[in-house]
Design goal:
This protein is mainly α. It contains 9 helices and 2 strands, in the order ααβαααβαααα. The radius of gyration is 17 Å and the shape is globular. It has one domain: Rhomboid-like fold, CATH 1.20.1540.10. InterPro entries: Peptidase_S54_rhomboid_dom, Rhomboid-like_sf, Rhomboid_protease_S54.
Length: 222
């Protein structure tokens, strides 16, 4: 169904690049002399999920870029560990292009739901929007392949419990990523790989619909 040979973990190039971007971005978030925007750092202020910047300035790139930023050491360590574990497996299974599509769609999905429900007050960062998409996509694909999906279900449950325990966590971002990941997982699991153009078109349509929903929200706000 998913087809192709499974790549060795050491060849998970996209995962390595994503982790590298997050680490470099975290370093830039902490550099002195980059200014003092509303978040305390100009780099963070420019790329974080800030609702009013989207609504007022049409900065829709913020639906993706927050996935590369983090709020602290524990935040980035946890997310990079999850990205390392799940990313290597999913990239090996899906291939680079489809895997990257899942990451982008999950990040945009999470941040879009956060914006739709939070509006001008929305403010968040973190790769967890995409990681939650990894969780649900992994579960759906594992079920389709009839392999053990119990462990990832436990992981999802634990992370949802954490999400709703701490008020500082963007729960809508996590839920949005989870929902989009499940949808992308269904596409990858049930649309034959020989119809890669259908898979790509479906993922592109989902991302486009998310951006359109954000534009409609902005119109209503301003």
């Amino acid at each position: 169904m998913l087809g192709g040979r499974v790549r060795l973990a050491g060849q998970a190039l996209v995962t390595q690049i994503l982790i590298g971007i997050c680490v470099v971005a975290y370093f830039l978030q902490g550099l002195p002399g980059l200014g003092s925007g509303s978040t305390g750092n100009e780099f963070t202020d420019r790329f974080a999920m800030i609702g009013y910047r989207i609504a007022v300035d049409d900065q829709y790139y913020r639906l993706l870029t927050p996935a590369f930023l983090h709020a602290g050491v524990l935040h980035i360590l946890f997310n990079m560990y999850a990205l390392f574990l799940l990313g290597y497996q999913l990239e090996a299974l899906l291939g680079r292009a489809r895997y990257l599509g899942l990451f982008v769609a999950g990040a945009v999905g999470g941040n879009t739901l956060s914006y739709l429900l939070g509006g001008l007050t929305t403010a968040s960062v973190g790769a967890s929007t995409a990681i939650f998409a990894f969780f649900s996509a992994y579960y759906v694909i594992a079920r389709r392949l009839r392999v053990d999906s119990g462990q990832i279900l436990v992981v999802i449950g634990i992370n949802l419990a954490i999400t709703f325990t701490f008020s500082s966590i963007d729960k809508w971002g996590h839920l949005g990523g989870l929902a989009v990941g499940a949808l992308i997982g269904l596409i990858y699991a049930y649309v034959p790989r020989r119809l890669a153009w259908v898979q790509a078109g479906a993922v592109t349509a989902i991302v486009a619909a998310l951006f359109l929903a954000a534009v409609v929200k902005s119109t209503a706000l301003v």
